[in-house]
Every structure is written in C-alpha cells, then in structure tokens.
Design a protein that fits this description.
single chain, 4-stranded mixed sheet, alpha+beta, two-stranded antiparallel sheet
Length: 262
C-alpha cells in the first residue's frame, strides 16, 4: 500500500517541463477522433429514446447494452485515435490486454448513465447531474486506464491541475449536452437539430477531456526527472543507449502493440 502511494505521488511529480519530450498532433486525425466521438454520442442519445419507448424489461436492457457499447466504444476509439495522432520523440508500446480492458469503464459508466436518464418521466436536474457525473467519470476512467496501458520509452508524469480540469471539462460538457437533449429540445421546433447539437457537445466532452488530459501529460527521458539525472535509466536502457533517450532527440521512433509497429 505504501509503495502504491509512493508511486502515485511520483506520477504527479511534474518536474521541469523544459526537459519533457515535446509531442505534436496530426490535425486530420484529431478531427476524425472528434467526429467519432460525436457520432458515438449521437447513436447513444438516439438509443436512449428507444429505451424510454421500450415495452418490456428485456428490450430496455437490450437497448441499454447497445447504447453502452456505442458510447463506450466511441470513447475508446476516440482515445486511441487521438493517441495515434499524437507523435512523440520516443518509442511507445501498448499493452494489448490493458488496451482492451480500458474499454470497460466507458461501457459500464455509459450504461449506468443511460439507465439513469432514460426513464418514462422526464429527467430533472438531479438526474441530469448524476448522469453527467457518471458519464464524465466514465470518460475519465477510460482515458487514464488507457494511458496506463501505454508503455513509452520514458517516465510518465501528470500535471495534477490539468488532470482535475480534464474531468471537470467532461462532466460540465456532458451536463450541457444532457440539458440540451432533455430540457431544451422540447422548446425547439426541430428535435433533430437539438439531438445533433446535444451529440456534438457530448462528443466535445469526450474529446475535450482527452486533449485537456494530454496537455497535462509530461514524458521525460529516463535520464531526466525534475531536471536532474535519474537512476531509473538503467532499468529502461543500457548505458550504451543513453543518448537515444536524451531530452533533445526529435525523431519519431514509433508505436508498437505486441511488437508490431503501428
């Protein structure tokens, strides 16, 4: 337990940003990742109407599962496409099992959130807030479990302020999205437009959480932690390879899953 606490503290020890690797994004992949999140949200929110109209418990659960997998799968797809768009000057590997399991939090949270808000009676503010918190928590849990599956040739650190802000972004935008879908839509002439706007805001909740969290990601060469040489370097590379992981290296090494470059 003490080791876990010590490790958690280390993860939030940001260090000197001047020695962190500088990443860059491929704009068209970023745009596609946001589009995927919006489409997944549109499908899930459309399914919520089917859940309300369901005439049996079995059909309601079937629609709930479909919505959960649609939203959870969309969150997961957006995350890893966003990571594919993120180029780093160090090698990055992904643990296959951890990558697959990272889909679970988003699916479970989406399923529970849909069950909370998709009932015969119109959801009040309390239910909308609960649904938004569950959705935001699911987006955050998926993101950080997905990041835990990432195994870069670097030491991973997070800015705790941006970690907290990323979850707030997800919850607030999810609440706005649900408010549009269930409270404002009845005042609009076009329900389709309201559904599309609601999905767009929910997609921004997913993407906004991801890219805010990534802004707080700090990857350091094994030689540099808090601006000084670190002994953990010997566990990551041999002494002859130290130059390969220096803070000034600027080439993209690549990403791998099970040894296959992607």
């Amino acid at each position: 337990m003490l080791d876990f606490g010590r490790h958690l503290i280390d993860v939030f020890a940001v260090g000197d940003p001047a020695h962190a690797y500088q990443g860059s994004y491929e704009p068209w992949l970023v745009a596609i990742s946001v589009l995927i999140a919006v489409l997944a949200a549109f499908v899930a929110l459309s399914i919520s109407a089917r859940m309300v109209a369901a005439t049996s418990r079995r059909s309601r659960w079937a629609w709930a599962c479909a919505g959960a997998f649609s939203m959870g799968g969309g969150i997961w797809s957006m995350h890893f496409l966003g990571m594919l768009a993120f180029s780093l000057p160090c090698g990055v590997c992904y643990d296959p099992l951890g990558t697959l399991l990272s889909m679970v939090p988003g699916i479970l949270a989406s399923g529970v959130a849909l069950n909370v808000i998709s009932r015969k009676t119109e959801p009040g503010l309390r239910r909308l807030v609960v649904g938004a918190v569950l959705m935001g928590a699911g987006i955050g849990a998926m993101h950080y479990s997905g990041m835990a599956a990432m195994q870069p040739d670097a030491l991973v650190r997070y800015d705790p302020r941006l970690v907290g802000l990323s979850v707030v972004v997800a919850v607030v935008l999810a609440l706005i999205s649900l408010g549009i879908r269930y409270r404002l839509a009845k005042h609009w002439a076009s329900t389709g437009l309201a559904a599309l706007l609601s999905a767009a805001v929910m997609g921004l909740a997913v993407a906004g959480m991801h890219y805010t969290a990534n802004a707080g990601l700090r990857l350091f060469s094994a030689l540099w932690v808090a601006g000084r040489p670190h002994s953990l370097a010997r566990y990551i590379s041999g002494p002859a390879d130290y130059d390969d992981f220096g803070p000034d290296r600027g080439d993209h090494v690549g990403r791998h899953v099970c040894g296959a470059s992607i």
